[in-house]
């Protein structure tokens, strides 16, 4: 098993006891991606106790997110037991004593991240560990979907994709914590989902297939839920994607010598004519005209 080199991830020593009198097996792998550390575990029924006395006192406070693929998890923390079935997700504070009880054969994925990155107080993490992240809620659905992607693909993704997946998981955990804190109103959940969609759009602008359906699929929510998240925003989802693409195009027009066709492709337009029409509708100038005007302005100021 690979030990974590990332100082923000703490290796918590665990003591495991098998709960069945039968041939035992325990398969575990651990690796890092982005700023996170992930463990995959498959085993016969067992009870696992955290040995927090062996964690260095100066270690960064951490939280863990656990997705149960099969079997069942009973998280015992602070005298409260939380049951999590297949597809369920739970977030908990690693700095407080805890035990896992897996009464049946199971498979699970655990992701560890610095507590500070979640934006959650210890009280919110305590509340989360006592109720779990509802699988049916928008934030819980997004988080469980991303963890399934991490479990299946994190080792085969390129470095940039792993970093993007890492950031998306942290954002999803923040959505969950907002949902279960005092800011957990419907408006707050929608705002969190809208921000996750904006971040997803920024990272995939060059994909000509970027659309509401594509973003919803990546965030593991329905298209209807995603559009609802933008009902109270200043722009619709489609307007947001168009604005981000045009913003990126303007930066390239002003800061590079790339051709209009190349810039169009870089920001996700396969049809350069469609890109030019869209740009002109926004600026009342074609991309080439806009570039000439912007580049001419320093000389105009110099003559003044």
Question: Helices, strands, pairings?
Answer:
Layout: E1 14-18, E2 26-33, E3 36-43, E4 46-50, E5 62-70, E6 73-77, E7 80-84, E8 89-93, E9 98-102, E10 106-114, H1 115-118, H2 122-131, H3 138-153, H4 159-179, H5 186-203, H6 212-219, H7 223-228, H8 237-255, H9 260-266, H10 272-283, H11 287-303
Antiparallel strand pairs: 1-4, 2-3, 3-10, 4-9, 5-8, 5-10, 6-7, 6-9
Helix pairs in contact: 3-4, 4-5, 5-6, 5-8
Keywords: DNA-binding, Transcription, Transcription regulation
InterPro entries: AraC-bd_2, AraC_XylS_family_regulators, Homeodomain-like_sf, HTH_AraC, HTH_AraC-typ_CS
Organism: Herbiconiux daphne
Describe the structure in your own words:
This protein has eleven helices and ten strands. With 304 residues, the protein is an alpha+beta fold. The chain has a domain of 130 residues: Sandwich (Jelly Rolls). A hairpin with a 2-residue loop joins strand 2 and strand 3. It is elongated. This is AraC family transcriptional regulator. Keywords: DNA-binding, Transcription, Transcription regulation. It comes from Herbiconiux daphne. InterPro entries: AraC-bd_2, AraC_XylS_family_regulators, Homeodomain-like_sf, HTH_AraC, HTH_AraC-typ_CS.
């Amino acid at each position: 098993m690979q030990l974590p080199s990332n100082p923000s991830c703490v290796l918590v020593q665990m003591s495991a006891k098998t709960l069945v009198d039968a041939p035992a097996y325990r398969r575990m792998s651990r690796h890092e991606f982005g700023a996170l550390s992930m463990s995959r575990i498959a085993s016969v029924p067992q009870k696992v106790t955290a040995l927090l006395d062996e964690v260095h006192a100066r270690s960064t406070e951490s939280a863990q997110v656990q997705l149960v693929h099969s079997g069942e998890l009973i998280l015992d923390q602070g005298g409260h037991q939380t049951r999590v079935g297949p597809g369920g997700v739970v977030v908990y504070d690693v700095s407080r004593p805890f035990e896992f009880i897996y009464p049946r054969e199971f498979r699970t994925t655990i992701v560890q991240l610095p507590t500070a990155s979640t934006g959650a107080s210890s009280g919110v993490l305590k509340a989360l560990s006592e109720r779990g992240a509802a699988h049916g809620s928008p934030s819980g659905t997004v988080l469980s979907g991303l963890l399934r992607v991490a479990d299946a693909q994190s080792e085969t993704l390129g470095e940039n994709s792993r970093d993007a997946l890492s950031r998306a998981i942290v954002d999803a955990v923040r959505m969950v914590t907002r949902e279960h804190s005092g800011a957990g109103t419907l408006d707050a959940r929608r705002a969190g989902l809208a921000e996750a969609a904006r971040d997803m759009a920024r990272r995939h602008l060059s994909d000509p297939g970027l659309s509401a359906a594509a973003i919803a699929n990546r965030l593991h929510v329905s298209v209807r839920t995603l559009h609802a998240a933008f009902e109270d925003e200043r722009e619709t989802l489609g307007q947001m994607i168009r604005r981000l693409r045009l913003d990126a195009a303007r930066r390239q027009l002003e800061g590079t010598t790339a051709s209009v066709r190349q810039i169009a492709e870089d920001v996700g337009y396969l049809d350069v004519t469609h890109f030019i029409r869209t740009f002109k509708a926004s600026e009342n100038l074609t991309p080439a005209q806009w570039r000439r005007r912007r580049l001419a302005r320093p000389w105009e100021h110099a003559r003044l």
